[in-house]
Amino acid sequence: MSNLDLKMQDAKALAAGYSRTFRMVEIASIVAFWSLSFAIAYKLWPYAKSYGWLLLAALSFGFILADFVGGLVHWMGDTWGSTEMPILGKALIRPFREHHVDEKAITRHDYIETNGSNCLVAVPVAAAVLFVPLDVEGWTAPALFLVASLGSMIFWVMMTNQIHKWSHLDEDKAPALLKLLQRLHLVLPPEHHKTHHTAPFDTYYCITTGWLNWPLAKLGFYRHLERLITALTGLIPRKDDIGLDAALKIAPAPAEKPQPQKATT
Ligand SMILES: [Zn+2]
Ligand SMILES: [Zn+2]
Q1: Of residues 109, 79, 60, 85, the one with CA closest to residue 208
Q2: Cα 101 to ligand 2 centre (Å)
Q3: Which residue among 88, 136, 148, 149 sits deepest, i.e. has the most Cβ atoms within 10 Å of its Cβ?
């Protein structure tokens, strides 16, 4: 066996070893996240009677906030950088870009692959939320609102990939209860999400409920952010996703470089 063959085998073994290790990390993250979520609910439970409305408002706020936060991360993954970038390229950008060319791939992922990486990101936040004290004199209500809204937000951000996957299921594979929730628009409806998968792929990034898609599009929220980032960095949004020509058609014009003054004689 040549040296090259041995090296290639090593690379394969490393890749296989890494993915097995990463799957173990994903499983540990899922267990840790669900345990922390139950611990947060247990921490809030004694206040449910006396602060019921406040908790309900905080949980609802977190639910809506998750749509925004998930959408913002999705917009970043779709719009900036390339799959060649170290770490972020493989971990964050590649799945988003791949999803645009193979929408159904996500439906073939099992529970661990779908939810593992989101749990990994959510675990430190959930742990931090768990340690916020609730019994500080005069601060119980604000602390309860903070813990319940953040707890709810990370729970629904964690659920985003799962909900997104559900929106891509074939009609005959979606359970009746899921279809009802989608029809009531309590989770992302497939028809609504289609807008994001329609060229030029530059809108409707929110994929938890999608409630914020319309107002954010009306406000031109992402276009304003893109204009700002392009002005500061000269980067073209979506260049690596849909190609430079297509991106330039919808991208805000890159900042013009000042023309050198012609010397007059
Ligand atoms: Zn996308
Ligand atoms: Zn999608």
Answers
A1: 60
A2: 10
A3: 148
pLDDT, tens digit, 9 for 90 and up, residues 232-251? 998 999 888 777 777 777 66
Minimum mean pLDDT range among 18-27, 131-140, 212-221, 255-264: 255-264
Distance CA 10, CA 98 (A): 27
Give ∠ CA 196-202-208 in degrees, rounded to 5. Answer: 45
Compute, in angstroms, the gap from residue 167 CA to the centroid of ligand 1: 13
Distances (CA, A) of 258 to 229, 238, 255, 265: 18, 25, 9, 21
Domain residue spans of the chain: 22-250
Rounded to two decimals, the pTM is 0.82
Backbone angles phi, psi at 258, to 5 degrees: -60, 130
Determine the distance separating the centroid of ligand 1 and the alpha carbon of 106, expressed in angstroms.
12
Q: What distance in angstroms lies between residue 255's CA and the mean position of ligand 1's atoms?
A: 25
- Which residue has 């449910």 as its token pair? 48
**Ligand 1 centroid vs 225 CA: distance in angstroms?**
17
Q: Which residue did the predictor score with more confidence, 164 or 245?
A: 164
